[in-house]
Amino acid sequence: MDFYGRLWALLRRDDMGRGLAQAAPAPDFDALTAALLSARRAVILTGFPVDCGGALRGETDGPGGAANLARALMATGCGATLLCDGVSLPQVRAAAAVLAPGAEVVCLPSHGTEGFAEALLERLRPTHFFTVEHPGKGADGHFHNMRGRVIDAMVTDADFLLPLSRRLGAVTVAIGDGGNELGMGALRSVVEAHVPHGKTLAAVERADFTLAAGVSNWWGWGAAALLSAATGRRLLPSPEEELRLLRAVVASGGVDGCTREAALSVDALPLSVHQELLRRMEDALDAAPAAVLSGV
Length: 296
What we know:
Distance between the termini: 21 Å
Structural class: alpha/beta
Shape: globular
Low-confidence stretches: none
Order of helices and strands: HHHEEEHEHEHEHEHHEHHEEH
Number of strands: 10
């Protein structure tokens, strides 16, 4: 199996049995890597709210992946802005402080969101816009959790950011693990066929690149691995860095989106599972040819 095949096999692990990662097609890895290499100014939207007995908390899945993505992009000369709403702001700040301290962190206001975001993107003029585990509207115009329940009251509506980014000329990339995330619309038929409550929760907005994984955070590593292979640099975090990252996100108030507990876990999987997958991704990178993308 080649490097892309090994990487995809790791990313599409479906420990939670959601159905999307196993059913989704592999991305065009050459085109995706070329797109990542061309990034000069990236905006990365993340943050999924969790209802913990009436108190909203930010999920542990999303901020870490966004921070890993930002760090890898910045290492190749790309500026990065992390964007989130007020619920997930503490977690995004914590993740950025550990892995991407040079990244700007911006909070979307719950009122006047569209005007604020339009001014922000006009200022930044991003070449690339990423979404990492952020709610996206379904066909009924509502946001849903993985149980198919409407969560509109918990979400700062950011669906307009994808078409706005495209109008400004940005490449758009969506990362998700359940199909209810912003930008996953290209996989809507897959979500409807293979994910429980898929017909209800499937997001409709589309991105230029749609990246599914067993856990959304893993694509932060996936992007870092692709850029590592293309540039010859070591851009993946160490397992120890991931420990510091998750500790910081939980200490800031983050909770596991599946268990709703403030624990060192993501999507009900303990940190050790994620660290082992990261080690296997490093192994795949070590075995990759010296110039995986010599034609890029």
